[in-house]
Amino acid sequence: MTATRPGDVVWSPPDDARSRYRVGQYLDWLEATHGVALPDRPALWRWSVEHVEDFWASLWRYFDVLSHASHSTVLASRRMPGARWFPGARLNYAEQVFRDDGRPPDAVVIHGFSPTREPVTLTRAALRADVARAAAVLRALGVRRGDRVVAYAPNIPETVVAFLATAALGAVWSSCSPEFGARSVVDRFGQIEPVVLIAVGGYRHRDAELDRREEVAAIRRALPTLRAVVDLEYGRHRLPDALGWRALLDAGTTGDAGTTGDAGTAGTAGDLTFEPVPFDHPLAVLFTSGTTGLPKAVVHGHGGVLLEHLKNHALSWDLGVGDRLLWYTTTAWMMWNALVSALLVGAGIVCIDGDPAYPDLDRQWRLAEATGTTVMGVSPGFVMASRKAGLDLAARRLPLRVVASAGAPLPPEGYGWLARQFPGTYLNIGSGGTDVCTGIVQGDPLLPVRAGEIAGPALGVDACAFDPLGRPVVGELGELVIRTPMPSMPVGFWGDPDGARLSATYFDFYPGVWRHGDWVEFRADGSCHVAGRSDATLNRGGVRLGTAEFYRVVEELDGVADSLVVHLDEPGTNGELLLFVVTDPGAALDDGLRGRIVSALRTQLSPRHVPDQVIAVPAVPRTVTGKKLELPVKRILTGTPVAEVASTGALAVPGSLDPFVALAARSAGRSGGAGS
Which CATH class is domain 9-92+283-531? Predict the structure, then answer.
């Protein structure tokens, strides 16, 4: 088997790509209806960022966005922050989900899989009926436009129903997954003062029944604005003094959850109505993951998420009526919002709760096969683990047209493995963030896929790399920036009425330009490589080193399961480069493994990449969405209290920061850096 090298072409658009893929069909429509003739995808991208208003107006018409009032203009102001999109429009995200797209009422639109219970499905008609009843229940509990409804719930169909019901009312949604500790949830939900909490009392993880009733009780005590608590009745454990979800929906129940509010009559599918709201009316509050400190409450609007996801899902992911999207995610990650938004373009979705690699790495692939999944999202870590385990999927009957990956850089070997497992399947590799609730750079089915590279900026995203002086750079690492507004940029941060925190987060470094916080290199053809977080990128002797390249080399080695690298700056020196590794079961970090790590980094990268110390740890600290906590670890090792840099209850592995806290404590008592 030939090794995949960086830059190798692993997929090329077929000759009929322009007629086969939806982005090509959009190009033809643009020429036929607007007289805008563009020969290829690079020309389309240039037009989309040079003619911003025309591009987004065309998408509004192409996707036939439902609006109860006409907008006066497309973009009232290009100033960032402060851009105002489609003023005067009145729409509702949930209404677009339920518009008639030609599918029959009995078409299955949601599959739900979980170790906690048997698989469930929802048809289009059942989804509409449940959302209507849930909206009626929330309305009877006093939820009105602008009120906040929060969920402490896993990725199951009921959570999707609750979100769409909240959106239909013009209320504001936010969610956390139930593996979060109470403190982490309160750090998030406490900022937005919710009136209703939807929760689960427990769930099954692997072979264990987890009881979350104490966590829910602590959350309730810390949220004095709650009027009601609704128990989704998922798993064995029931929440005391809470309203029962199924009883509310099926029969209409009056109950007192220790608060005021009458659940009233559940309602029927015919009762589903939608509150028309302005384009920038809050739809959901997403929280930053904690990789750069405590979570920020990022407010996203109905119109921004709606229009951006219509564009992204149809024109980049090539999703449409008849497709089915499977993307493992928790409800705390923006990918959950992106998963639900597949419903906007007429696709079905697969909701998965539980450990994504249990009982084995093949589980997700089996579910894709069983559900007829046509578009599947997989994390880079899952891809590389499947590759390392030697999974052979090429002979399986997976109907995948598109395999997508995001959340962290995918090594070139991952591209090659996917291309061999799914010959002819389009690979869409991208990078984006909670901040914009979408991709910033990603693939396009009209462009080739090269190993280790992302095809380029997404349509309508004027992304490039800046040097420290704010000058665009090509062929070298720089800060990832966006130079013109996007509709899905945040409406604001909750509790930031003058926008000072929002401006300081994204716009102060380069005034008037969005600084995303990633370190990226763009090539002359527009393709790019994301090296990692710019605030965690390593600076050794004045040379920038991306963390992703370390992980690509180290985690390929037998005996290494995971790794994390940080650089401790020391004025007047090259600082100290520390590499932390988690060994495979049965392996140990002995002199032999240390030697192989050092040799691989020296020969495959450079002598600058050789760490000063290689240290074993039980687990790499990650958020529940899989992001490595590079910057928080660095700050802990340089003396910052852990409570100031990370929300420990939101860790994928509880206690995974403890070894770094202990290392910092030992180092504080002696000279010579971080210790051994």
Answer: alpha beta
